[in-house]
Write a structure and sequence with these properties.
elongated; about 0% strand; mainly alpha; about 750 residues
Length: about 750
């Protein structure tokens, strides 16, 4: 071998003849099954290849690749592995001269086939697969940077390389009986690690124009093998992709995922949820502060999927009502909706403040402010669900929102429609709006420190406070009265619960801590006193709500008095609170918002049944709970007014009169606990308030309370008018007008008319 190497180096022009001779000998030995000589010939070729670097090496390489091909085509696994090892050695050599006529198509196909080997012996099968992975790695190294070679990024090559790598990467994701992936035995020999290194090396060499061709086979592989539903393997694949490619190309991967999500809009909810989960993880990894030039398109795609999921949920509930499959479908759609909402938050977390403000405004524009829907009843429920889902998405966007200029971050075009939702009857929607406002105003993470209770010393809260800036003063000067009015109106809603009052207290506390100057503090005190008067005078409110508003006012005045540090003010507030603690604890938070009553504090059905049964009573019917049967007459008699609870002007000036001060100091507990006004007087008062509200309220706030019923009537009337107009003045027939247009148009018979879809029953 030393003499042969010396001869080849001394006479480089003889290399091609040496290679041709060794190739001929190897082919003959392979055919005659003389494998010892085959190994000797390949070792000679390997050593000559490593030693000789001259301009005539290309002809020798052709003979070498021919011999490697012969070995890879053999049936013996040892020969395939031998040929792969020789090819890997060749791939690590940097050639001085380029080759214009060399092709690696065969090697890509053969190595990909070896990656999918199904040999009976598991040890040999693993060796063949690892050889195929190393062969693909060698092909990538040899061709990816050589412009004269066939483009390895072409789909015909990527469709073979990437699925082969993913197939071996998947070997450690064998699900157990519970469905969760566990590590397989194949991972002990390093197959998965080798595959991951090869895949990372391939993706790390991808440039801008090659990202799509590299990612598309991954998407197709996950589709073909139903790997989205498991989520873990799909997430792992795209984590490898996101960490391997160049950071400036990350948004291209996300755009492909979004496009794939659109393409699978009609797939099952578990598949769509898996894609959304991958998008969420990819957004967290993508840390460049931007998700590409089409930020709003990303959120538009996600919100569109949210709407589709709501439609699918309602459709699945109607078609599969009463069946287990329908319930399962609804549950899967809700899980998908939660995943989409989390993904919206993940994307928003990567954006700077100015882009997040644009996204907030964009989502607000997508929320249906009024229930303008045609047709069936479930459409109105769908509109409500869409409102809730989009508000939850908006809440995710506002998490961690930090801005120094509230005036520009929260323009009127965003704040006005957001506040209008506080006038809706739906308690869940109002609560979401309050949480959004809290998240926007809280800039020092104080919201979790506020609890609706009376503290003798608020220093234990450790509130973080800064001096109110000029921008904050301008913001409050422009929007404060609107905020106060909507807080006041929110307290008048009859279906408010403890969470609503807690959120209202947190919102008012954050306004006082984050945005308050002396003028704002005075207005907040006026608002608290107005809420107290509301609890005293608004007799239509339930007793719980009136006591809760009293408790809210007391807790907030206690907070403001300690923040202002005015001794006489604090003394007066503490005196009233102490009096309430002794005489009327139900006017304080601790007395109103008690925990759930259970256990020994409730009457036991079983014990009552046992005692009655022992006394001769038939206690069998006690097992069945009593449920009243509501008739249609009862429903009509309990129907609410169109604008049942709305008052749009907060006239707090009149609260400063001496008479009101006396009422405030006396607390007027008796009014809170008794309903002594007769029904007729209440009805007259309600009608007077309705007339007054229609006279003073802006149109959009009246429309927010109108509900679905009147809008249905409006569109039914509109559809009926359209039908009548078509009947009275029917359109020309499909054959057109007669003659040359001088005569009147011929009418279409009624049974041939094309009515609008809205009018067809």
């Amino acid at each position: 071998m030393e003499k042969l190497t010396f001869y080849a180096l001394s006479a480089p022009e003889k290399l091609d003849r040496i290679g041709a001779y060794l190739s001929e000998r190897l082919s003959r030995d392979v055919a005659r099954h003389r494998y010892g000589y085959v190994c000797i010939a390949m070792e000679a070729l390997d050593q000559l290849l490593m030693a000789c670097h001259c301009q005539s090496i290309n002809l020798f390489v052709e003979s070498f690749l021919t011999m490697v091909r012969k070995l890879l085509e053999a049936d013996k696994p040892n020969l395939q592995i031998l040929g792969t090892n020789s090819f890997v050695k060749f791939a690590n050599i940097e050639e001085d001269t380029a080759s214009y006529h060399r092709s690696y198509d065969f090697f890509i196909s053969r190595f990909s086939e070896m990656c999918h080997s199904s040999y009976e012996d598991p040890d040999i099968r693993t060796k063949i697969r690892m050889a195929g992975i190393r062969g693909l790695q060698g092909v990538v190294r040899k061709t990816v940077n050589d412009e004269l070679q066939a483009n390895i990024w072409d789909p015909q090559h990527m469709d073979k390389i990437v699925p082969s790598l993913l197939f071996n990467l998947q070997q450690d994701q064998i699900p157990d009986s519970s469905g969760s992936p566990v590590c397989a035995e194949g991972d002990k020999d390093g197959t998965v690690d080798l595959t991951e290194r090869c895949l990372r090396e391939l993706l790390g060499r991808a440039v801008y124009g090659n990202i799509k061709n590299a990612v598309k086979p991954v998407l197709m592989h996950l589709d073909n093998h139903s790997l989205w539903e498991g989520k873990s393997f799909a997430v792992r694949c795209f984590k490898i992709i996101m960490y391997s490619i160049q950071s400036q190309h990350s948004h291209l991967v996300i755009q492909q995922l979004l496009g794939h999500l659109d393409a699978n809009s009609k797939s099952s909810a578990t598949v769509r949820a898996g894609i959304v989960e991958v998008i969420s993880e990819a957004a967290v990894i993508e840390a460049s502060g931007s998700i590409g030039p089409t930020v709003l398109e990303v959120f538009n795609t996600l919100l569109k999927q949210l709407r589709l999921s709501v439609d699918y949920e309602l459709g699945g509930g109607c078609s599969g009502s009463g069946g287990g499959g329908g319930l399962l479908r609804v549950q899967e759609e809700r899980q998908l909706q939660e995943s989409v909402i989390r993904t919206v938050g993940s994307f928003a977390g990567t954006l700077p403040t100015y882009q997040r403000s644009e996204v907030m405004l964009f989502i607000m524009g997508k929320i249906p402010r009024f229930l303008i829907w045609f047709g069936l009843c479930f459409r109105f429920e769908g509109s409500r669900m869409i409102q809730i889902m989009l508000l939850k998405s908006l809440l995710q966007v506002t998490v961690g929102f930090q801005t120094t200029n509230m005036l520009t971050a929260l323009p009127s075009s965003f704040l006005d429609p957001l506040l209008s939702f506080t006038l809706m009857e739906d308690a869940e929607i109002r609560l979401l709006v309050l949480e959004i406002l809290i998240s926007l105003i809280d800039r020092h993470e104080n919201q979790l420190k506020f609890s609706l209770r009376v503290l003798t010393d608020i220093s234990v809260l450790k509130l973080k406070m800064d001096k109110c800036s000029r921008q904050d003063n301008l913001f409050m000067k422009k929007h404060s009265q609107r905020l106060y009015r909507h807080v006041y109106l929110a307290c008048r809603e009859e279906n408010s619960e403890q969470q609503h009052f807690q959120s209202l207290f947190t919102l008012l506390g954050l306004i006082c801590v984050e945005l308050a100057n002396e003028e704002v503090v005075v207005d907040l005190i006026r608002l608290a006193l107005a809420l107290q008067d509301l609890a005293v005078t608004e007799e239509a409110l339930p007793v719980f709500n009136r006591c809760a508003v009293h408790a809210l006012s007391a807790a907030y005045l206690n907070l403001i008095s300690q923040l202002t540090t005015v001794p006489t003010f604090c003394q007066h507030v503490h005196e009233v609170i102490e009096l309430r603690q002794k005489e009327f604890p139900f006017l304080l938070p601790e007395g109103v918002f008690v925990e759930k009553v259970e256990g020994e504090f409730l009457f036991s059905q079983s014990k009552i049944a046992e005692t009655l049964g022992g006394s001769g009573y038939n206690s069998d019917r006690l097992v069945t709970p009593y449920i009243p049967q509501i008739t249609e007459e009862d429903r009509l008699s309990k129907r609410k007014s169109i604008v049942d609870t709305i008052s749009l002007q907060l006239d707090v000036e009149s609260r400063l009169s001496p008479e009101k001060e006396q009422v405030r100091n006396c607390v007027c507990v008796c009014v809170c606990l008794t309903d002594g006004v007769c029904v007729e007087e209440q009805e007259r008062e309600r009608r007077r308030l309705v007339v007054e509200r229609f006279q003073t309220a802006p149109f959009e706030e009246i429309a927010a309370h109108c509900g679905a019923g009147c809008i249905i009537c409006f569109f039914l009337s509109l559809s009926l008018s359209l039908s009548l107009s078509l009947t009275l003045r029917p359109p020309p027939s499909p054959s057109g007008s007669i003659g040359n247009g001088s005569g009147p148009s011929r009418s279409v018979p009624v049974y041939e008319m094309k009515f609008p879809d809205l009018c067809v029953y």
